[in-house]
Amino acid sequence: MQEARSNRQEAKKLKAQNFHLSPFTFHLLIFLLFILLFPNSGCKTPSDLKEEAKVEAIDKEGFGFIPFYETGRLDFTEEEAKVKMDARLKREREELERKKGEFQTQAKERWMGDFWIPPPINPPLVSALREFPKDLFGYPDWSMAVKRGIINPLDSIKGERVKKDDEEFNQDIIFEISDRMMANVRFPHTTHNYWFSCRVCHPAIFIPKRGANDFQMKDIWEGKFCGRCHGRIAYAPKGFENCIRCHSVRREKVGF
Description:
With 256 residues, the chain is mainly alpha-helical. It is built from 9 helices and 3 strands; from the N terminus they run ααααααββαααβ. A 3-stranded antiparallel beta sheet has the order 1-2-3.
């Protein structure tokens, strides 16, 4: 009985010795426990100190209304402020002059006259074209209006007069078409020579040689040959009233 009791006491002493902590381990556990219980009271890093200094500066009277910068200084003298303001105003004036010059250059390319004055509003075409000569279908005949002196078109957007070719070919050209049910085409050189120069068409669009230009209506509808102008700035190559403007030469023999 006595021996069993002494054995239990020896076991307790041995167990206590196994769980004995060294001084280093004990202090480490105390430090970790302190950090867990009080996370905001430990050692502060340099970034934490810098952030606290920033907040403290902003909280001062007057600093809450202006931004805070880590570099540079906030104080300045009257002379320094004047120099900085003059430099800023100079940069703004230079930028304004640069933009003004760009605007003037673009405006001169688009509009003739004083670019500060807005262009006049065009009147309605219905009243403006009421006294114009009309063609067979009631549309304004621009060529006849020029001949009668009703309008005097400009040679260019800028208002400059373009020198006409010294030698103009003013004869009409007859295009014989393969469709025997349609009239042939008369091309009046006189009318076209008034609106633009010979160099516009020859030789880039039409080769000035008999039989050298082979094309179909499909090509014109796709913007080739006559379609370079007609359908864009001249009357469209579609519609019955427009068809007979060009197909105006009767055939001697019609049909198959």
